[in-house]
Structures are given as C-alpha cells and as structure tokens.
TrEMBL record:
It comes from the Bacteria. SUPFAM superfamilies: UDP-Glycosyltransferase/glycogen phosphorylase. One of its GO terms (molecular function) is transferase activity. Keywords: Transferase. This is Glycosyltransferase family 1 protein.
Length: 516
C-alpha cells in the first residue's frame, strides 16, 4: 500500500497503461519504460510522469560494467567467498579487453535503468516483470549499503495493488513559467507585471543560477540540482506538464535540467506533446554574434577575433543559432540592439521596480559627485577603459569613484540611489538593467548607445553618450554643467516609467499568451 508523500518508481517493460499507475493522492509516481522510438520522452498520464528511456546502444565494455556491478553487490553483501572473488576479478580483467559489443538483455536493462533509480532515490520500486524485478532488487541492495530503505514489489497489471491516480487539473487556465535563468531578476518582474495586468493569469519565475545576487524568484534550485539531480528534474517536469500552459525559455537553456551541450530545443517535444505553448527569450551575449557585432558597432568588445573570450562566445553563439534556425516558436529579446541579431524577434523591454528605486536623495548637489561603475561583466562593459579614466578623475579631486562588482542586488540598488552619476557600459552600443535602474533612481546615466540603436527607440533616450575615447571629457562636462545634468537625470526617471515599468513588457507578451 502506498502512502502520501512517498516517492514511487514503476518499472515497466511494455507501453505504460493508465491503470498501472500505483499512487494515491500525494504520492509522487515516476514511470520508467524503454523508449519505443530510441528517443527520450516525457508525458503525464493519470497524474504520473511517464518517461521513455532509450535503451543503451551496444557498447564495447558493457559486459565488463555489468559484471563489475554484480561483483560489487555480491562482495558488499558477503554472498561470495575470497576464492570466488579472486576468480571473478580475474574474469573481469579478461572482460576489460573484450571488444565484443553489448551485454545480455538483463544487463542491458541494468545499465539503462539502474543509475536512474539511484539518482531518483525512491521509497518504493514496483517492477512489472522478472527482468525489471532484478534491476529493482539490485537498486535496493545499493540503497541498503547507503543505509537508505528502498522497498521492491513485483507488480502485475490488473492486480489489487494498482490504484489509479487522479488526473491532475490545472489550477489556472493559463499559467506561465519563465526560466531557468531569471537574469537580473527579469523573469520575476515580468511575471509580477503579468499577474497584475491580466486577471486569471498565473506567472512564475524559475532561477537555477544560484544566490550570488539574491534576485527574487518564485522557484529556485541550485546549479547542481539543475544539472545532475534527476529527482528535482523529474519533479519539475511533472509539475510543468500538470499545471503550466505556457513556457518561456531563457538564454536558450532547457528547463528540465541540462546535460553538456543541451539547449532549449531538447524540451520542445515534451511540451508539444502536452499542448504547452513555448517561446524563447534572449538576454544578450548568448545571441549577440561577435563577428556581426564588430561589423556593426565601432567600439565592439569583440574586435580581436582570435581572443580566447571572443572565440568561446563565437562558438557558443554558432551552436545556438543552429538550433534557432529550425525553431518555430516566438523569439523575444530584452534589449533593442539584439533585434539586429535575431530575425523576426520581438522586443521584450527590461522591467525594473520603479517605485522601489525612486528616491528623494538629491543629485549633483555635492561638491564632489559620486560616480558609480558596477559591471556585470567587465570585459563586455568596457571596464578596462572606465577604471583608469575615473580613477584619474578621482585622484584629481573632481569625483569620488565607487567601483563594485558581484554585490547582492539590494546592496547595489542602494549604491545606485546614493550615487550622482552611474557609468553603465562603453562598448556594446545599447543599455541594460543597470542603466534602467540608474535612470529610475533619478541618477545621471552614462553609456555608449549607438545611433542605430537610438533610432529603434520610440522616444529620446536620456543617457549621456560616452565612448572609450571621450569618457573623461563627458564626466567633466556633467560635473561642471550641473543644471543640465539634473535635467538629464529627471528625464531618465520619466523614460523608465514610460518604457520599463512592466506595462510595455506585458503588451509584448500578450499575443503569445492569447491576449487578455
């Protein structure tokens, strides 16, 4: 008899039947079965997550791996004596150099499913037939060695052991999940703006990027969980298939966990089988083609094509674009310059909490103004040009230079509000979250915004233009012309309230979500 809150794994050799789900309300059920198509698949059936697992292709060394698993189990349980141990170890050395492919059917099942069960850490495994029962029994042996209880039950369809789990129904007709990055807290802010503007819509942000900057999110996970915790991955998959109607992938990353080289397209078949609409959001360097950027932008940080940083970005960008070429969902970009790099992209404006950033602190009234530079990536923001110029101005007593990096978002927001001038970036040709936050706080904001990007904007952008060659002169002018600087700061606050308080982001997303 299963109990609420138990984790149950059902091992089946044939196609899953809805009546075979062994669950009561609250029990988490994962069905593992061989894939009929040799491709992995996930679907929700009668409240259980059914996972089709491709059987291992025959490989040299399979016979050795399977024999080693069995030997370790027998030694651990003291089922064999010293003499037999020596004989089997000698046989293992022979198998290690055996070039024949494959293993027995039972060994193939062990190599395919054994590791999955270990990573899922279930409380009970129900096995449909003798071959699967052998896999489950060995998993129970390994669990016992780890001082963890794992029950094993032989299950046959149609017996009284089966209880059909209630089919899960969505608590909202429309529920959006944005993840798994929550870059600069944007997913959280978009979700909140949508819930505020669209009655009956639920929206959530998922962050798996760690707590370094402490951005708020509705769901969080560690990088380790995202990349290797199968239990977390399957729990999220089951939740999404049961409760979510729309998914927005961030930065080209998959939602249900990531193996090396995987991109968001690996999750698309699962979502489409479940009838879940999907799109992708690009934030910046993952989709900004370095080769094209240096052609279009005079101060591009990618001028040296042989630089190791540029080469790595170029390779990652090209790999992503190969997937994007065949992707049919909507594509959103968060800064206007990225429209140059994505065909048929939609601008999804960055969003900031304008009320939380608003301040009554005066600007440009101190004799020595405070100038803040807080790059998220010094290489991309042009910090190598910013630091020496502002350090020199500080030494001359014209400004007080504050340079920070890697601080929590709440701390950075206070630093922004207490500054007079915020220098964003000098090389990318557009503006990002920090510039929006600086403008929302009524600070004088400095950065390089290329003419081709300014032309894309619906209204004049109140950011003081500066490049690596004239940053010092620009700062000196802002310090000497105080009244003009304060007007620029006032214009920044109005600009952000018009474009970046969440309303424009909602309008951009509504067609994807089916309107209000």
């Amino acid at each position: 008899m299963t109990q609420p809150d138990l984790r149950v794994v059902l091992l089946v050799s044939t196609a899953h039947e809805g009546a075979a789900v062994l669950a009561e309300a609250g029990t988490q059920v994962t069905v593992l079965r061989p894939s009929a198509t040799r491709e992995s698949s996930k679907q929700l059936v009668d409240g259980a997550l059914v996972v089709g697992v491709p059987l291992r292709e025959p490989q040299v060394g399979d016979r050795h791996k399977a024999a080693l698993i069995e030997l370790k189990a027998d030694i651990a349980h003291r089922r064999i004596g010293r003499v037999e141990q020596l004989l089997r170890r000698a046989w293992l050395k022979v198998l290690k150099f055996d070039r024949r492919l494959g293993a027995s059917k039972e060994q193939e099942l062990e190599l395919t499913f054994g590791g999955l069960i270990d990573r899922l850490r279930p409380d009970v495994v129900y096995a449909q037939d003798a071959a699967m029962l052998a896999v489950a029994t060995r998993a129970a042996d390994r669990a016992k060695l780890q001082k963890r209880a794992l029950g094993v039950v032989r299950y046959e369809a149609g017996t009284d052991q089966a209880k059909v789990a209630p089919t899960r129904s969505r608590t909202h007709e429309r529920r959006l999940l944005i993840g798994p990055v929550n870059s600069a807290g944007q997913a959280w802010l978009w979700a909140n703006a949508l819930e505020h503007a669209v009655p009956g819509l639920a929206a959530e942000a998922l962050s798996t990027t760690g707590a370094r900057y402490a951005f708020a999110a509705h769901r969080t996970a560690t990088d380790e969980q995202y990349k290797s915790d199968l239990r977390w991955q399957f729990d999220l998959t089951a939740y999404v298939l049961a409760q979510v109607s729309h998914v927005l992938f961030e930065a080209g990353r998959p939602l249900f966990g990531q193996r090396p080289g995987q991109l968001w397209t690996s999750d698309v078949p699962t979502l489409e089988r479940a009838g879940i609409k999907h799109g992708v959001i690009f934030h910046g360097s993952e989709i900004r083609d370095p080769a094209k950027h240096r052609e279009l932008f005079a101060h591009s940080p990618f001028q040296n094509a042989d630089d190791d940083f540029t080469r790595r970005l170029q390779a990652a960008n090209e790999a992503l674009r190969r997937h994007l070429a065949s992707y049919e969902g909507p594509v959103f970009v968060t800064t206007p310059d990225l429209l140059e790099f994505v065909d048929n992209g939609t601008w999804l404006p960055l969003t900031v909490d304008v009320d939380a950033l608003a301040t009554d602190l005066p600007v440009m009234e101190r004799e020595v103004p405070v100038v803040l530079h807080a790059p998220s990536s010094g290489a991309l923001k042009g910090s190598a040009y910013v630091d020496p110029v502002l350090t020199d101005l500080d030494a001359r007593g014209l400004i007080e230079y504050q340079r920070v990096e890697g601080v929590r978002h709440a701390e950075l927001a206070e630093l922004v509000k207490n500054a007079d001038i915020v220098v964003d970036q000098l090389m990318l040709g557009s503006y990002g979250v920090l510039a929006c936050e600086a403008m929302a706080a009524g600070r004088v904001t400095v950065g390089h915004i290329a003419d081709r990007v300014r032309a894309l904007l619906p209204t004049e952008l109140p950011i003081a233009e500066a490049t690596p060659g004239d940053l010092g002169a620009v700062i000196e002018r802002l310090v000497s012309e105080r009244e003009a600087s304060r007007k620029l700061a006032d214009g920044g606050a109005a600009y952000v309230r018009e474009l970046h308080d969440g309303r424009r982001a909602v309008e951009a997303l509504l067609p994807f979500l089916g309107g209000r």
